[in-house]
Give the backbone structure.
Amino acid sequence: MKPVKIGLLGLGTVGAGTVNVLRRNALEISRRAGREILIYRAAARGTWACDTTDIPVTEDGFEVVNDPEVDIVVELIGGEEPAKQLILTALANGKHVVTANKALIAKHGNEIFAKASEMGLMVAFEPAVAGGIPIIKALREGLTGNKIEWVAGIINGTCNFILTEMRDKGRDFDAVLQEAQAKGYAEANPTFDVEGIDSAHKLTILASIAFGIPLQFDKIYIEGIGGVTRMDVEYAEELHYRIKLLGLARRTEQGVELRVHPTLIPERRLIANVDGVMNAVLVKGDAVGPTLYYGAGAGAEPTASAVVADIVDVVRTLTSDPENRVPHLAFQPQSISDIPILPIDAVLTAYYLRLSAEDKPGVLADVTRILANHQISIEAILQKEPLTGESYLPIIMLTQKTQEREMKAAVAEIEALASINKPVKLIRMETLG
Ligand code: HSE
């Protein structure tokens, strides 16, 4: 049988990793796919870390997507444009697409999938979420029998690496970020990592596949790790919690909670022990119960592993009936539902509070009275010695679950107390039980 011809867009970290994996495992991969897979041509700028002696490389991606010989376009350039136009052109030209582009799928996936369905083509995007972990496949196919209740994930390797190094080695935020960039984990614009935007792109995709809802990036609540201090990491440890940047999508009776923020997780949970650049996604299905998927969430070859898996998936279905392929978003397009996404104020969660309080009688009583007035129960309190040279002392409180709007109102009243230094530090907490 004729080889399947790949048109590769991008030879950066993941693109070069894909070339290397496809070359190294060519025989094994074609034994699985049933066809030889050939990188027919590529488009890239600059220099790259793979051998391209037998691959013609152009600077113009449109030459690749318009080449009638190309069967599958693999888009690994990232960003919204020109990636979107390249993919839409590839689809218009009747080519299947594999992409690692989470920003593009999260923001324009509805439009891209509609075009793909119209043309009877596949757009596969496993590498877009959690690098090498086959979480799209697991959610979309392996868990089809379940009603998914919630999905919680550590889905940004760069942030997890930064938080782990801060905790274990007391390293400086910027130095760790630079190392993540040098290792090819961080986004071209690393603020996407540290501000939680990259996690939000991925969570948008996971939520859509889990609950059968449209991709709705603009409705996610997003908070990055910039405000997490070493002090909070240490106090959380003392209380047997770890701080992780967590993406959480939860179905409730009122709607779907969709949020990315630093989160205290009990240290006894497996997911709390996912360190460094590793990712993990915890999925709770009503039939299967909790399931955990763990692996490298970034890097050249782990992500290439998912790219190649998608290529093989597409190759295997080249001759199948387009109407009966696995739907892009797991649910049949006509069955996508419009369950509302809840605003953050309506979310129900527990909290870690860090107050800076004057050391005098009655301060703690004032704070607990305010919390009680808002029906907020306290689970633990930790009072520390004042930091050197300071007269105010840190008080750490863990609360039980309450609605975010109640907590915000209580915090505003606590901050108004003369004996409390503003601001009160607030980090959400999830038991993931
Ligand atoms: N910048 C991303 C991360 C790369 O650190 O997880 C993988 O999507």
